[in-house]
Design goal:
Blueprint: H1 2-12, E1 20-24, E2 27-32, H2 38-47, H3 57-64
Antiparallel strand pairs: 1-2
């Protein structure tokens, strides 16, 4: 689902940038930042195979502000 969202975003907004933050096991991590292409984010999403644990929305928000 996230891959589809990123592809549609890129198709509709080719000049805009998006940052992708993942959360799992009560941690947040940056998949791609504003300086990288959406294709890099898509490639990183496809490498994730473990979605266990509770997400931490607080950690994701704090990471997005840095």
């Amino acid at each position: 689902m996230a891959s589809k969202l990123l592809r549609e975003f890129e198709d509709l907004n080719p000049l805009n940038r998006i940052s992708v933050i993942g959360t799992m096991k009560q941690q947040a991590f940056m998949l791609c930042d504003f300086n990288q292409s959406v294709q890099i984010g898509l490639a990183k999403i496809q490498t994730i195979d473990d979605f266990d644990g509770c997400p931490s929305y607080q950690n994701a928000l704090e990471l997005s502000l840095t």
